[in-house]
Amino acid sequence: MRKTITVQQINEQTYQFIVNENELNDQMRGAEQVLADSDNFAFIYLVDVGDAYVYLRIEKQHWPQLAKVMEQQLTVTDGQTTLTLPGFTEQFIALLYNIEGNDNYGEAFVTEVEATFADVLQ
What we know:
Helix content: 25-40%
Mean pLDDT: 95
Number of strands: 8
Largest sheet: 4 strands, mixed
Strand order of the largest sheet: 1-6-5-4
Strand content: 25-35%
Order of helices and strands: EEEEEEHEEHHH
């Protein structure tokens, strides 16, 4: 089973995703890929740990904050380790444009994404 780290909050001042303590380690590297989990209304950023990937999960409750900070250089921190998320903005925006009007993701998911990220999709 793949390890998932769930974002607990987004700090809009420092452009950081905050996760639970001891979730990160120095071997982790951002994989520059963002996926949609349309069934569970979440976005996933892949984190490379050498021979596998960890899912950094951003759930719907955090989308409004994400819409405000997504064009900054984002990091994730557990209070001890901080990891840069290279390519997040570019990959995320490309994914948003792919989701827009695409019912393959499910009508409810598409509607929610289009509403939350309307400023980006203009």
